[in-house]
Fold Tol-Pal system protein TolQ.
Amino acid sequence: MTATQDLSFVTLIANAHLLVQLIMALLLLLSVVSWTYIFRKVLALRAARAATEQFERSFWAGGNLHTLHQSASAQRDQSGPLARIFEAGMGEFIKGKQAARDAGDMTPVLDGSRRAMRAAFQRELDALDIHLNFLASVGSVSPYIGLLGTVWGIMNAFRGLANVQQATLAVVAPGIAEALIATAIGLFAAIPAVVAYNRFTHDIDRLAIRFESFVEEFSNILQRQAR
């Protein structure tokens, strides 16, 4: 093992053991993918909140429900999650309303409308939750992957001491520094993923509460209209 005075990150990574280099590359890849998902999720949640607020303003302004339903159906992909939940419930109510009135029992159509909104509610939550499991996995696993590289690098550094006559700090320091970089990269990948996961989970939970409240309130409105 040859001592070196150059302890820059590039040199340490270049001189690291092949397995440690592969672990570093894996961690950097996980970090890049995590940041990609983080930026996408930030934009998706921002758009979902804006669309939800806009639809709530339109809905509670007291406009015609049929007109609002037609507008939500015509722009389904751009209308936002809450509008799609409304569109599912209102569409089911419109389809079964006349038959239920002829039968003299509106309960089935009201139950069907609620089930349609619940199904749409779950679909929207699943869409918002996408990639969160990946962030959680990166946040929990990356430090251990980095630790594996550190342990392997330190083992390799100490094995190299068998080839030198006198073990000094100058000899062993580069090998240990190379190994510790793996842990640092693991933490670099894990910390943003954990922070983002917790933040996104909180934001999605708040949206879910708004969606669920709307389902209950709109169900009550449909029940009053069915009388």
Observations:
- The chain has a mean pLDDT of 85.
- The helical segments are 9-15, 18-60, 65-74, 81-103, 107-129, 132-160, 169-225.
- The CA atoms of residues 96 and 102 lie 10 Å apart.
